[in-house]
Amino acid sequence: MNSPLFSLRNVTLPARLNSVTVSIPRGSTAVVGLSGAGKTSLLNVLAGFESGFSGAYQNHAESADKSRLPLFWVPQSGGLWPHLSVEQHLDVVTPAAAQNHNSSSEFGRSSERTDELLGQFDLDQRRQAFPAELSQGERSRLALARALATRATVLLLDEPLSHVDPIRKPAYWKIVSQFVTAENISMIFASHEPESVLRQAEHVICLHHGTVEFEGPMRNLYDAPPSAFVGEFLGPLNWFTEDEAGVFLGGGNESAIRPEHLRLLVADSAVELIATPFAGTYCESVLRHVGTGRMKSVFHQVDVLPPLGARVVLSRVGANV
């Protein structure tokens, strides 16, 4: 069995982390939580930039290839070097083995890897610019491109691409995913974005007020979250208490149901449709139980919606049945 990348036991950082015990595997791990939950503090501990903590910490981020850095850290600020151009940021971290040079720069010659990454992150036309001349989005993309250029065994990324236009973000994440797979790189990243976590993470750590609320496989958190609070970090979630299940589902235990596993159907029932505030890849509808007046908003599949005031039932479908 492979050893974990990092092992923390009862790690406490005053006012930031509280008795954190986690075992982070190789691969891709997302750290999620509300602002102030301790995500950045945890990454700083892993990166070795925090020393004032108690508890046990082991770092197994190493590679048999001694030409590779064991770890590279990208803070929220990007950590760019103000005296280096965009091109130079990548050239100075690119391992010698990848330095097939083909163009000039004041540091020597730009490598093919630099040219490729600049093109992929839409920075080719900005290669001579310095960080102060870049937009926030450009700085975020440069920080991530530089991290990939290192080929470090482990990348620690604190909210990468947070300043990048949402419409362009999936394409950049795809580049990251392909690169880390090809280079056998493990990645630990903090994120507020459910879509990025769902697409990129195999493992998830959820923090709240510096305490670990969940640690485990991403699919476990998605399919069977232990609470509504942690489940909602991976997107829309219906959480029914046992009492609500009796009123709106016709019975059952306390349960979590994702929108794709719930349908709204016209039927002779005691529940009526009050409103449907929005629709997209899923719908949100407001229901009222006629007998008790109880209300509940539910996320469900996009179907032909019944008219407002219609009597309806919720039907569970797929994996959560």
Radius of gyration: 24 Å
What value does the average pLDDT take?
Answer: 91
Shape: elongated
CATH topology of the largest domain: Rossmann fold
CATH architecture of the largest domain: 3-Layer(aba) Sandwich
Estimate what percentage of residues fall within beta strands.
Answer: 25-35%
Side-by-side strand order of the widest sheet:
5-8-9-3-10-11
**CATH class value of the largest domain:** Alpha Beta
For the biggest sheet, the summary is: 6 strands, mixed
Number of continuous helical runs:
9
Order of helices and strands: EEEHEEHEEHHEHEHEEHHEHEEEEEE
Number of strands: 18
List the domain count as a whole number: 2
SS content category? alpha/beta
Distance between the termini: 34 Å
Low-confidence runs of at least 5 consecutive residues: 101-109
Q: What is the name of the CATH superfamily of the largest domain?
A: P-loop containing nucleotide triphosphate hydrolases
Layout of strands and helices, then pairs:
Layout: E1 6-13, E2 17-24, E3 28-32, H1 39-47, E4 54-59, E5 71-74, H2 86-91, E6 101-105, E7 108-111, H3 112-120, H4 136-150, E8 154-158, H5 169-182, E9 186-190, H6 194-200, E10 203-208, E11 211-217, H7 218-223, H8 228-231, E12 238-240, H9 242-248, E13 255-257, E14 262-266, E15 271-279, E16 283-289, E17 295-300, E18 312-316
Parallel strand pairs: 3-9, 3-10, 5-8, 8-9
Antiparallel strand pairs: 1-2, 1-4, 6-7, 10-11, 12-13, 14-18, 15-16, 16-17
Helix pairs in contact: 3-4
